[in-house]
Amino acid sequence: MGVSLSKAAQWTTFSPDASKLKSTPTNEALLKEILTFVEQIGSQHPQEADFTFEAPLQWRTTVVTSDLKSDYHIRDSTAWSHETDSREAPPLLTPFTVRVRSLGQLSMLIQAAEDKKLEEVQACLEGNRDFLVKILGPRIASQLLEDGAYADVESLKEDFWNGCRAPPWRQAQGEICYVVIESVDTGSLNVTCCTAGVFLNGVGGPGALFISNSRKEFILNSAAGVTLWLLLFHTYIMYIHSVTCRLRDCCSFRKTSSKATLAELSSETSSESEEEEERPEHQPESDFYLSSEFLQIKKLVKYLKKGDQKVTLLMLCCMLDLDLTQDSCNLAIRDEGGLQFLLNLLDTNEDKCKIGALKILIRMSRCVPIQRSMEDMLGVRSLVNNLDSEVTKVKALAAETIANVANFPRARRTVRQSGGIEKLIKLLDCFLKSQKKSDHLENMEAARCGALALWSCSRSTKNKKAICSAGGIPLLGCLLTSSLESMLIPVVGTLQECASEESSRITIQSKDIIKNLVKNLRSNCTDLQIQCSMALFKCAEDTETRDLVRKYKGLKPLVELLNNTNNKELLAAATGAIWKCSISIENVLIFQNDKVLESLAGLLTAQPEEVLINVAGALTEFLQVPANKAVIRKCDGIKPMIQLLLSTNQALLVNVTKAISACATDRENMKIIDELDGISLLWSLLQNPNPEVQASAAWAICPCIGNSKDAMRTVLSFQGFGRIPDLLMSTNNEVLASICAVIAKLAKYKNILATLTDLGIVSLLTKLTNTKDDRLRHHLSDAICHCCQFANNTAAFGEAGAVEPLVRYMKSEDILVRQSATMALFQLSWDPNNNLTMLSRGAVKVSCV
Fold this sequence. Notes:
This is Outer dynein arm docking complex subunit 2. InterPro entries: ARM-like (IPR011989), ARM-type_fold (IPR016024), Armadillo (IPR000225). Keywords: Membrane, Transmembrane, Transmembrane helix. Among the domains are: about 1-140, no CATH class; about 145-255, no CATH class; about 690-849, Leucine-rich Repeat Variant (Alpha Horseshoe), CATH 1.25.10.10. It has 50 helices and twelve strands. By secondary structure, the protein is α+β, with helices and mostly antiparallel strands. Helix 26 (about 515-520) runs antiparallel to helix 27 and helix 45 runs parallel beside helix 48 (about 815-830).
């Protein structure tokens, strides 16, 4: 009774002195159980009924003297029993208050309450929250009951969700675990490890080493000395370390953005070597452990563990009725040992038990902490092993569970290392080869679940390669002919994940998969349209794929998807596919007929960043056509692009600057950019720490300088001008090439060139001449050529050693490098010393060749 009240009774949240029992089904059941016990105590346990309490139970009662029988002395409104206890103290009834000293007396009083028995029991409990102390005395806290002690000892063997071994009610006091240490000179030592330190239980006496603590007293026998202290300290530190590791493993997950852009997806995939971000595990509220649902889970797990096959099946059916969508239920099942038992069932030969366990695991595995716990318990390996089962339903359920669990790198790695990729692909093959109609339906479900699992696994780079090398791409392509959307979505999802690998894209191009992807773009299923668009987005990196999309008339469906402005995910996928397809000028011409440029310009405002990135990328490709530069101006597309330069998204800044660079080649557009202070914003982007942003901003500045009315005033008024020397010390070749191109444009203005010379531009450019990058060589030579126009720069370049490397540039296979090097050498030749260097290094011979 005491255990039930302390752990299951539900009290109000007032102060302990004024708390009342809540009106809940659990409390009502407890009160009825206690009432039955008290009523039968006299007949079933007469000896125990006469046991005298250490202190009387006292509470406010509804019983009056008229309710009592002849066994009581009654005087006015006070009554006392004829019977006395061992202390010669009879039970006493005064107005509104009653005191009893034995269970027998309590039983008689409850009988007198008649139809108010439950209310009387409740009043007794509420008036005596510490009734065990009153019945057995204050030393009850230090006395152990056999059953309770056994249960507590067993609980110490369990690892809780946070890695502690102390029972939950002791963890609230800061206790972590209890350790028994066998020492050489003092025998067994019982130690409590808690957040305040390590404490030795029950040690005292003269000659002991005493360490005071605000919470407890820590006493060590002097014979143990420093060695024992170090042992205890080491034990504590090691356990704290193990708890920390458990918490990190249980609560970690991969660092991914909740809104990953399509532009990022093309180059970034989840890597198994990346660290997983820590996610705090949401434990059930404390009230859940007091709920009837938790008690039901506890009973189910208990019978599940101890029952035979029939009982196990029955308990599995009962567990399916639980609300497994709640994390609290799933975590309670795990903490009670139910998850481990379900995983153990997968290693048996009982197919019915396997099916029942897998149905539960499918629902539980949607909970993130359960996914990680299943991996920790080697459950993923058991799931992979069941893919070899002779029962198709078992294989299907195991594959679907893997699809849920493989949401983090460690589980995906386990699937691959256990041979799961090949087994999942085999499920696809079995479906394609199935002949019988009955088998066909079962195999189709297994193939669908297999595709779901492959989709989850394909988020890791190594798994993508494994799928491709195992022949999974052609089989997935064959499944694209299915009419079932539930089959097509995971199939296309797997293909679009694998499409980030070049080997997979080659296979996709050669197996007519593009044709089916284009076909499914016309589906009424939004999710399928999203996956098809994303697949084309990744595959259209290759010229062959862009040509195939045009061949199978896939451009028109993509344009139609732009009308779904409310579905941002679909809009992002469609704009991404249009962006990559527009890299081919032939596709741009077709898009022009459908006025796609105008539609894209309208999407430059009030859209999420993932849409804006793709729209800006597509506009960059459209603006390569000269006629479109006037179109973007007429549809007011330049202003929103300039405003996007204030964004903090790096990928968006890269694409927007490229689009503005394409616009700036038109003088009319350049006027608008100048009026909107676009050049100033571009210069400010040179201070961005991202090299890609720096490079794209520098490339955009080049046409702005060339087409600006007053370039010198524009340049000298911006702080970004002073960043040029710093950027010439960058380790990124693209940044260096773009800055050299900017210098070549600026050097046409003498005042600016004079300032650049004062900033030490000659020595900085000369240091770059030993590069082997042809793109950098081309723009570096061009910059040197234009810088020679000022004062003594020609001689300065020769003295710095720029001539000899430029002579070597003449041997480059890139014609642009040879042209710019020739022009640079021509300018350098105005200095006699430079001519001597050229002749000695064979410049004349090279030029003649």
